[in-house]
Automatic annotation (TrEMBL):
HAMAP family: Ferrochelatase. GO terms for biological process: heme biosynthetic process. This is Ferrochelatase. The keyword Acyltransferase does not apply. It is an enzyme of class 4 (lyase). SUPFAM superfamilies: Chelatase. InterPro entries: Ferrochelatase, Ferrochelatase_AS, Ferrochelatase_C, Ferrochelatase_N. It catalyses: Fe-coproporphyrin III + 2 H(+) = coproporphyrin III + Fe(2+); heme b + 2 H(+) = protoporphyrin IX + Fe(2+). The gene is hemH.
Amino acid sequence: MSKPFLSEPETSTTDTGVLLLNLGTPEAPTPQAVRPYLREFLSDQRVVELPRFLWQLLLRGIILPLRSRKSAHAYQSIWQDNGSPLLIGTRSLTQALSKALPESVITRFAMTYGQPSVMDVVQEMKKQGVANLLVVPLYPQYASSSSGAALDQLWRALLKQRVQMAVRSITSFCADTNYIKTLAAHIHTHWKQHGRGECLLLSFHGIPLAQQQAGDVYVEHCRTTTQHLVSELGLKDNEYRLAFQSRFGYAPWVGPSTQDLFNQLPQAGIKKLDVVCPGFVTDCLETLEEINIRGKADFLAHGGEQFHYIPCMSSENEWVKILIPLINQNLQGWL
Ligand SMILES: C=CC1=C(C)c2cc3[nH]c(cc4nc(cc5[nH]c(cc1n2)c(C)c5CCC(=O)O)C(CCC(=O)O)=C4C)c(C)c3C=C
Ligand SMILES: [Fe+2]
Ligand SMILES: [Fe+2]
């Protein structure tokens, strides 16, 4: 029988730690590796809120066999020599923040699904002496299915601790001034280097409409980011669009859909399109494959002439500029 609480070191420590949380990604771009990742992800009731038994029948019987193969194929098109872009990006962001924070702060990352797990990393940080922990889900806009699910894993880890850590968490930073200004500057730099389209599409990951109607603040947060960003960029109403991507399943999702806009915008006279994904801290399957491969092909096939995807901001310069002040503000009194 497993013990209800973990054994603790006898010395009491007071070190401070910062834990970054991201979604997780498969170990390899193969159906065999994608399947356990999707099973864990899609079994989370924050992600799919259907009755558990019915959903598990559907998931294991129909969805996993089909989706694992389809997703593995998509992952193959973006996989890098050293692994999944989401893992590479999260690791390099952790290294950059670790360098920029005082040496005494222990900085790590963990994944909501897959490896490294939140449970293992929190345990390891505790062994290293962390007693005060700041947790930063890497999602500027809060959604129950992303930030909420990430924080659930942290609370699960704390349930195992005999002597619990002091914990602070950042739940969202959708209107943070450094985030908005740095993102606006990033877009300007892209325009200077590659030219500017007729319209800027801000594409956020979607959520099921039922979750929004049940009170999730996610869409409101996406609108807040959009308002601040377009005002910082000085865009007129006809120079930008807000849309939601990555629809999953047959139930309605929040709209308008990014996919629909790729098909419709050329007919509405927009032939040159720039796309940015402000809700993603690191490039991943949903930006590199869904937007920059499939989305681009659809837009061009429907009469579009120029499609520029503006990549996520860099870890070393831009995200450090955004996250260090936010982290320092939340570490007050601990250092
Ligand atoms: C803003 C962050 C995200 C929210 C909100 C979110 C909700 C959400 N996602 C799914 C289903 C899938 N998402 C998948 C990939 C994926 N999702 C996010 C972020 C959010 N998801 C990221 C960063 C990624 C990329 C992971 C990577 O390895 O690069 C996938 C897996 C890929 C696929 O098969 O398409 C699924 C499935 C739901 C159902 C949902 C809200 C309820
Ligand atoms: Fe940049
Ligand atoms: Fe997702």
